[in-house]
Design brief:
Blueprint: H1 4-12, H2 16-31, H3 41-58, H4 60-68, H5 70-87, E1 93-96, E2 101-104, H6 118-139, H7 145-172, E3 176-177, E4 181-182, H8 194-222, H9 227-230, H10 235-254, H11 258-282, H12 285-318, H13 331-338, H14 342-353, H15 366-369, H16 379-384, H17 393-420, H18 429-444, H19 454-470, H20 474-488
Antiparallel strand pairs: 1-2, 3-4
Length: 491
Amino acid sequence: MSDAPEIGRLFRRDGAVAWSLLAFLTSYTAWAWGGVRPSFHVVGVAVSVVLLAVVIVSGGGARQRWRRDPVMYLGAAFLGFLALQWANAGREQYFDVGFQRWMYTPPRWRNWPSAFSRDEARQMLAWFFPAWVIVTSIRTRLLPRRALRALLRFLVFNAAALAVFGVVQFVSGTAAIYWVQPLKEPFFASFGYGNHAAPFFVLAAALAAGLLYREAFDAAGEYGMDVSRFRLRHPGRMAGLFSALLLCLLGANLGLSRTGVILAAVLALFTAGYGWVRGWAVLEAAGRVNLAAVTLAAAASLFFLVAGFGQKGLEREFAPKPVEAGTLLSTGERIQLELGYRPVFARAAISAWREQPWFGLGGWGFKYRVADHVPRNLWPALETRGWANVHVDFLQFLAEFGVVGFGLLAGSGAWMLAEWFQPRCRRHALWVMSLAGGVLLGGFSLVDIPFRSPAILYMGAVILAAVPQVCTSRSQSTSRARGVLLERNGL
């Protein structure tokens, strides 16, 4: 026991161990199939266990903050709920002769949280346990702000490297992801589903823009320096962030997701507009000309890169969906077709949720009940179009976790979001651009399933937990400390 303080000091040293584990966990998940393959979950869970042990062993203020954190308890309760669903899983399908319909056996413990498949319920634990560890470890403030900024930059450069890999793979014309596993549907980089690639790179691009503008506009004020002088303080870093921003926007487009392309364009316009608003106030005439030149060059480069690499794929994506010759569709039917029948499956999710409103159907439970809540003519799509998912994230989580589970999950997010909207954060470029990325990601989740990719979930968890800490400037901290000293001395 006498060695425990020494071990704690070792782990607290600049948060190096925690930083390395966080960096590995987020990068590994992104590169390994976007974290969706169950066979790769064991590594992520094992790393998360080690990271949690680091937080507990570190002692000092970090452990106390971890114990007092409401998000830790809300997340732990949610994991306990998922564990109950897993323990009470194992419902078998059978044909009821009396009702002349297929049905499922009841769970072993009636009126308790349950799931249909034990393996699939375990996937939920493998997804959300690392996310909980990521959030709570950052909220302990084990990592200083400088380390958090470095972690956010690592996320950006890792995403940029993944985009480069995706472009190389895309240009090669291979039909096999990693040049190993053939896939019938379009894919990009490590994401076998284009509608996972697009939101991942949109979120990374927003983070890159926030870090870039922080270097240009906000960091000077933290150190009491002139903005025009500080812009040249880290030119290599700014060039790297600018390149990463373009690469992530390119990756978002080459995911060949219609919604992803639209959101990438919205983010690019917002990024340019925000940069102009901030830059115009601090730059002189020559600087404004340079800013205009850089903006035009970036827009032209991105346009020609996207058009050169992905023109044919984007034309297919935005073309009207084909129908059988001679088939006449009403306006409503055409809209449903173009939306992939998402409204139908959204209503099915609400109907399925009403079967088990409090505890839900269990992880991946929607796919076992969806057939009873959609028209028979859509049943073939259940086998061929991946409708195990609602394609509206919050409805799927509500249907599978019920009011109790979804409430615990949403409560954790709401508690952290409340910290985002403190006055000290709102004027920071990193906060503005990260919020823009989060809003776009939230909009994407209304028409698809970004939060069912652990790679997106974990990057979002880091941003959600780290940005409010990073946006606390050094000058604000110094002023606060000076005020405490004056108060203690009766001044």
